[in-house]
Design goal:
Layout (H helix, E strand, L loop, with lengths): L1 H20 L5 H33 L6 H50 L2 H6 L2 H43 L1 H8 L2 H38 L1 H6 L3 H29 L1 H25 L4 H42 L21 E9 L5 E10 L4 E6 L5 H8 L7 E6 L2 E2 L5 H6 L1 E4 L8 E2 H6 L7 H10 L3 H4 L9 E2 L8 H15 L3 E5 L7 H15 L3 E5 L11 E6 L2 E6 L1 H7 L2 H9 L3 H4 L1
Parallel strand pairs: 3-10, 3-11, 6-9, 9-10
Antiparallel strand pairs: 1-2, 1-4, 4-5, 7-8, 11-12
Helix pairs in contact: 1-11, 2-3, 2-5, 2-11, 3-5, 3-11, 5-6, 5-7, 5-11, 7-9, 7-11, 9-10, 10-11, 15-17
Length: 593
């Protein structure tokens, strides 16, 4: 158990060092904040000394001389006035530091998310990622705003109080110093048990966000299949586990934070008063000294209590920081070039050579795939669901890496092309296209500054998208909400088509791209696609065989293997799997029998 705890401490120390490293680029602000903090702390220490001076030199002696008393009054008021301004600037400065650090941390995490491989997103719920970028970074911000400032101020305060105590009375100072190990024991016990609880809390909160995201994204399916009660029950269960985790933390805090420290403080005050009581029996005591020590005892335990309260935030920040850094340090990056080259895709000829691929490293979803498609040619991929059609697209686009076989473009391995070159020369239209929040024009342009409004309109006309866009109130400036949910599936697909046409790719990949478009529009698009395919390499996934009958080569896949290849007429002549699919789609199965 001890070794495990030590390992946990080492991990927490690494996380803390890493979080503090973000402050290096804000050295001036940090120094300013600590300077304001130091002045504020000195004000807290010197104010009781002014009162002591007044009590011992004037009040107990009944010497009320105007000038020295006026000087003490001005000094006391000035100390508090300066302290007030310093506290204001200290708070503002720490807030600036925290906001700048969290701003950079969120940018780092978001940037890393953009570079992660799709395998990571296959395994991690979207809500969990969102929770780490938002909730966890917010917990880290609280550490910089409240915890660090409080810890440093407490350190300054305790150090200053002990120095003042030793100057005033060394015996009492040593007594107060003997309390420190007890307080350290309480803090260490709290940290020991709270780490596990906080990790559980953050994980439960992440699960809540994941369940929320899943429910909201699939709300139409939830309502259609009447899954509201099941999801409510699942959410209630996750929420209850989060409640239990928070309750454990509250119980721990309720015992080991302020109550335990207050008990030690009460004991210390009792001993202090007893000391002065015994001393008063034997002789004269300084009332000002008694006041100062009582005041210092209160001020000594005040930062201790503050530290204990902030300790919960500190522990949460470390746990949250470790969760954030698991994303930043995640090794599953998107595939990158194996060596730096300046290869350019010119013709767009594609060749698969004995390619095999597995998502999990165990079961192959592609087995010895080999085919060629040259500039101006079209290869169509057909087969049953799960036959490997989309996997071919995934490895060609380098969404996933492969280690057996080869894919060549213009005779060069795709692993030697920069991803920017590969993606800029490849156009992909999916069956369920994704639209971003913004306008139709934004979704076609995708922030490509080289695309003029004229080219965007031309691309929309090319794919017949202008027919519905021109009817909208703001036309190309019409708003697109999240995922384009206010547009029909066909309209979203037409916008995606226009986006691809506007990019003018060398290689065109169509994943059942006309599936959600009505027959009349599809016929018009097919005419446009024929023109678009001229001079381009085209790979098309098709379920409706009528859309790919003019393809130069049709590949029939079954369980990850190419079982048939040829033109439409050649495959019909073979009377194999393609022939059966054709008869089935045309309602000719009975006649074939």
């Amino acid at each position: 158990m001890t070794n495990q705890n030590d390992t946990q401490k080492i991990d927490e120390w690494k996380v803390l060092k890493r979080l503090l490293s973000y402050a290096k680029s804000h050295k001036l602000l940090v120094l300013s904040a600590f300077a304001f903090l130091l002045v504020t702390t000195l004000g807290e220490i010197f104010a009781p000394l002014v009162v002591k001076k007044f009590i011992d030199d004037h009040l107990t002696k009944k010497e009320f001389v105007l000038e020295p008393m006026l000087f003490l009054a001005v000094a006391f008021f000035s100390i508090h006035l300066v302290k007030m301004f310093m506290m204001y600037f200290q708070f503002i400065t720490f807030q600036k530091i925290a906001l700048k650090i969290i701003q950079q941390l969120r940018i780092d995490v978001f940037s890393k998310v953009q570079r992660l491989g799709l395998r990571y997103f296959d395994q991690t719920p979207a809500g969990s990622i969102v929770s780490r970028i938002t909730n966890d970074t917010e917990a880290v911000k609280d550490m910089f705003v409240s915890v660090i400032a409080s810890f440093v101020q407490s350190a300054f305060m305790i150090t200053g109080i002990f120095i003042s105590m030793f100057v005033l009375n060394a015996k009492l100072a040593f007594f107060c110093l003997s309390i420190v190990p007890i307080i350290y024991g309480i803090i260490r016990t709290y940290r020991y048990y709270s780490g596990t609880i906080f990790r559980d809390m953050r994980e439960r909160l992440s699960q809540i966000n994941a369940k929320l995201a899943e429910s909201l994204q699939g709300m139409s399916v939830v309502q259609i299949f009447r899954q509201e009660e099941r999801l409510r029950s699942e959410f209630e269960d996750i929420n209850d586990k989060h409640y239990q985790a928070v309750l454990k933390n509250i119980k721990l805090e309720s015992f080991l934070t302020r109550p335990a420290i207050d008990l030690v403080a009460a004991f210390s005050l009792l001993i202090l008063v007893s000391f002065f009581g015994v001393k008063s029996i034997n002789g004269y005591i300084e009332i000002g000294l008694l006041y100062t020590f009582v005041n210092y005892i209160g001020r000594f335990f005040e930062p201790i209590n503050d530290v204990m309260v902030r300790m919960a935030m500190f522990q949460q920040a470390l746990v949250a920081g470790s969760r954030v850094f698991t994303i930043v340090d995640h090794p599953e990056l998107a595939p990158a070039p194996t060596k730096e080259t300046d290869s350019i895709i010119d013709e767009g000829d594609v060749e698969f050579k004995n390619l095999s691929f597995s998502y999990d490293g165990k079961k192959d979803v592609l087995k010895n795939i080999s085919f060629k498609v040259k500039k101006g040619e079209t290869v169509a991929l057909v087969g049953q669901t799960g036959s490997g059609k989309s996997s071919i697209i995934n490895v060609l686009m380098r969404f996933y890496d492969f280690d057996r076989g080869e894919i060549l473009i213009d005779g060069v391995s795709i692993k030697n092309y920069r991803n920017s070159e590969l993606r800029s020369k490849t156009g992909l239209v999916l069956q369920d296209p994704f639209l971003f929040f913004g306008t139709i024009k934004d979704n076609i342009r995708l922030h490509n500054k080289k695309l003029t409004d004229e080219k965007i309109i031309e691309a929309a006309k090319f794919v017949q998208a202008d027919q519905f866009i021109e009817k909208l109130e703001k036309k190309y400036d019409h708003e697109v909400v999240e995922r384009g949910s206010t547009y029909s599936s066909g309209q979203r697909q037409l916008i995606a088509f226009a986006r691809t046409v506007a990019a003018n790719p060398k290689i065109l990949i169509l994943d059942e791209a006309t599936a959600n478009i009505d027959t009349e529009t599809e016929e018009a698009i097919q005419t446009g696609l024929k023109k678009l395919r001229e001079g381009r390499t085209t790979i098309a996934i098709a379920h409706r065989l009528s859309t790919i009958q003019d393809a130069n080569l049709i590949l029939v896949l079954h369980h990850g293997e190419i079982v048939e290849r040829g033109t439409h007429q050649e495959l019909l002549t073979q009377k194999g799997l393609y022939y059966k699919m054709y008869l089935l789609q045309n309602g000719l199965v009975e006649q074939s029998a």
